[in-house]
Amino acid sequence: MDGIEARELAYFVAVAEELNFTRAAERLCIAQPPLSRAVKQLERRLGVTLLERSSRRVALTPAGQVLLDEGRRALEGLSAAVRRTRRAGRQEPRLTLVMKAVGDGGMLPDILAAYEKEPDAVPVEVLFCGFGEHAALLRGGFADVGLLHGRPDLTGLDHEELLVEEQIVVLRLGHRLAGRAAVTLADLKDEVMPRWAGLPGDRGDGPEVRDAGQLLQLIALGHAVAVLPESARAYLGGDVVAVPVLDVPPTTMMVAWPEWSRSPALAAFVRTATETAGRT
Amino acid sequence: MDGIEARELAYFVAVAEELNFTRAAERLCIAQPPLSRAVKQLERRLGVTLLERSSRRVALTPAGQVLLDEGRRALEGLSAAVRRTRRAGRQEPRLTLVMKAVGDGGMLPDILAAYEKEPDAVPVEVLFCGFGEHAALLRGGFADVGLLHGRPDLTGLDHEELLVEEQIVVLRLGHRLAGRAAVTLADLKDEVMPRWAGLPGDRGDGPEVRDAGQLLQLIALGHAVAVLPESARAYLGGDVVAVPVLDVPPTTMMVAWPEWSRSPALAAFVRTATETAGRT
DNA sequence: CCCGTCCATACCGCCAGGGTATCGCTCGCG
DNA sequence: CGCGAGCGATACCCTGGCGGTATGGACGGG
């Protein structure tokens, strides 16, 4: 037995993130002295100095940096286990599918229809999320399966490819490029591209949008253009047009799920999704 | 805060594995009543029934099965974090390299020599392990980096390919195939192949060996033959010969390390290993 | 030089977690 | 059919650990 407790690890992580016992204590809603004691006890149990305290400044030792990284992940794993258990224990078992709005390549109705006929099928609950959130929601145990686009970070996930799509640019009717048969990225370099709300990695210019409706509205107003997978054509209204973009790499849509998941309901969904995609 | 404690999770895992509170309690070195109480408290905190108790039999509910799987992994992650922290906290930092004996493709001396010249280099400690153990030792935080062969389970690991090798069969001098320029698997189907000790997945026949020395001795005695990567030629004595095997897929050697590892010492080692392999 | 900041120490009270004794249920066996 | 063994649940006690308050001591800024 290594004897380390989840609570004291969480305490240490708070201190290591704040680099300040007092602030960490109030974040944890406890007083500062018990926090000091708990961290010291953790150091004693590990036999390792985690923090360099100099009565004016708190700094991480190399070992402390390791425990901050590893411990955060371990705590994530713990609460993911809790969430998955809670969701598995609901009286009415469900499968939570996470996807970006309009991120199903038009296949979701077919997949769901086929899935419902499976013997292991359970009701599917669809959870919409922002641009890069799929993977975190799957890893964290908030969702069972996801439909992903592009090249997300797949660590901790298993996946199957469903569909490879060419990309199009969506333009307002009357836009200077709207009549072209095809465009290149060079044609678009002066265009305003919206960015998804709450996404730190995205480029800073362009208006912020929260969902596909806002995006289409911006395009229809002529305030922006957007490069989307070809399947998005199905969602376009009459006041915008789609033009193929020649030199953008095709985007692949995939179904992904947490590594180690072995529920029959999930396996049936993945099988159904790949078969449905393969039948096109 | 989800409020789940590592100890109570370990308690539940023990009960779920034994399906018997009394035996689980003695495995945990506590009395049975506190164990019953702890599991019940865990169920209350999760709001989920984990075990079906029928006064004569204990069975897992579906949610209990989920928590058994996920909780085991979460506890693994926790103790891996502890081990990595302990190893990072040693006064003399070292890099622990795990490999099968004679599993380095002859490159280890070159890699180590080149690595020692790196600015971020630390002393390398080599840990030998049995056939399929590399990945578990890396995931568990017992080692920092490994040299792997074949197609191990790489979940939780990052890796780089170092070397693709053809395979040879090692035979006693005077063996019926020893004079051949090459053989096929069909030629070998009646031969005795040793199996590595402590490896459940291996085929049952053949004598058990613990290391390369025992293996070569068995071959020299004519009691066995073995299919090995070409680089093993360097370790062969004069009383055995090596013959290429035509229809065995080449084996790839790779360097692997735990996902998320970001120590400069490790990064330098991986870079050195790939550069050394690329220079051949 | 004093005051504010911040971590450590000292001490206290309470409850969670572990122990022992015992009950209740069920199955197997004579 | 009745008894005993096995096993989990309950009741009760006791101790150690965790959290709280008060305070000390080191350091830096004004």
TrEMBL record, chains A, B:
Output the lineage of the source organism: Bacteria, Bacillati, Actinomycetota, Actinomycetes, Streptosporangiales
What PANTHER family is this protein classified in?
A: HCA OPERON TRANSCRIPTIONAL ACTIVATOR HCAR, TRANSCRIPTIONAL DUAL REGULATOR HCAR-RELATED
Q: Which InterPro entries match?
A: LysR_HTH_N (IPR000847), LysR_subst-bd (IPR005119)
Q: Which family does it belong to?
A: Belongs to the LysR transcriptional regulatory family.
| Keyword Transcription regulation attached | yes
Please give the superkingdom of this protein's source: Bacteria
Occurrences of domain HTH lysR-type (ranges): 4-61
Return any one Pfam family short name.
HTH_1
Q: What is the name of this protein?
A: LysR family transcriptional regulator
Question: Does the UniProt entry include the keyword Transcription?
Answer: yes
What are the protein's UniProt keywords?
A: DNA-binding, Transcription, Transcription regulation
Residue runs in coiled coils: none
